[in-house]
Design goal:
mainly beta, 11 strands
């Protein structure tokens, strides 16, 4: 059974930085695309960033130039470095792992990020 555990959320001021981590169990990590999503109160869950097994990355327009996704295969961990945070980045952040058929099949429990103005 694949499990994803996020950490690193918290409260930060406008313009600050946080780094989220997502550690996975199982042997699927190194061969699958990882991603980060976020959900603000009353809104749908939105894509933030993804990284393939070869290191190719993709970002939502709203975070390009401020967020950086990376992964460490030896630690089975993916990271989301968030710089120049804004109040509108406040949300619960979820990491996700693509399943065999290419859908986001596995999800973490989420970690709260709050940016104060």
């Amino acid at each position: 059974q694949v499990q994803l555990v996020e950490s690193g959320g918290g409260l930060v001021q406008d313009g600050g930085s946080l780094r989220l981590s997502c550690t996975t169990s199982g042997r699927t990590f190194s061969s699958r695309t990882m991603g980060w999503f976020r959900q603000a109160p009353g809104k749908e869950r939105d894509f933030v960033a993804s990284i393939t097994r070869s290191g190719s990355t993709d970002y939502a327009n709203s975070v390009k130039g401020r967020f950086t996704i990376s992964r460490d295969g030896a630690k089975n961990t993916a990271y989301l470095q968030m710089d120049r945070l804004k109040p509108e980045d406040t949300a619960v952040y979820y990491c996700a792992l693509v399943g065999v058929l290419g859908s986001w099949n596995y999800w973490g429990q989420g970690t709260q990020v709050t940016v104060s103005s």
